[in-house]
Amino acid sequence: MANNKNRPQGSQDHGATRAMEGARDQIKNMSQNVQEGVDRLGDEIHDRYDSAREGAAQRYRQTEGMIARNPAQSVMIGFGVGFGLGVLLTVMLTQREETWMERVSDRVRDLPDQFRNRMPDSIARHFS
Fold first, then answer.
1. Residue 76 CB neighbour total at 10 angstroms
2. DSSP secondary structure of 9-71
3. pLDDT tens-place values along the chain, 128 residues long
């Protein structure tokens, strides 16, 4: 009878072992799938980077050729763009901005008027 009691436990242990092996295989398959996806994504990013770099190099060569064919116009365009950016930055940096102290002092200066406006007329006459 002792064998009968041990036998179901042994079969349960064997079933648990098979379940753990199955779970381990599933985790291994999932990790392989994730790794393959990451590899594909890395390859795609690398390909797109290479194509963008080649496109930028081609546009740079085209721009160099255009500048070589039209040097006077290129200098004038460069001067105009630089001048425009300089004016824009100057305007942005020289605008006077109200400081926090000025904002607070304006509010504090207006406080007596606000209190006076809220007082009943009989009391306000004494402060005028």
1. 11
2. HHHHHHHHHHHHHHHHHHHHHHHHHHHHHHHHHHHHHHHHHHHHHHHHHHHHHHHHHHHHH-H
3. 444 444 455 556 777 788 888 888 899 999 999 999 999 999 999 999 999 999 999 999 999 999 999 999 999 999 999 999 999 999 888 877 777 777 776 666 666 666 666 666 666 666 65
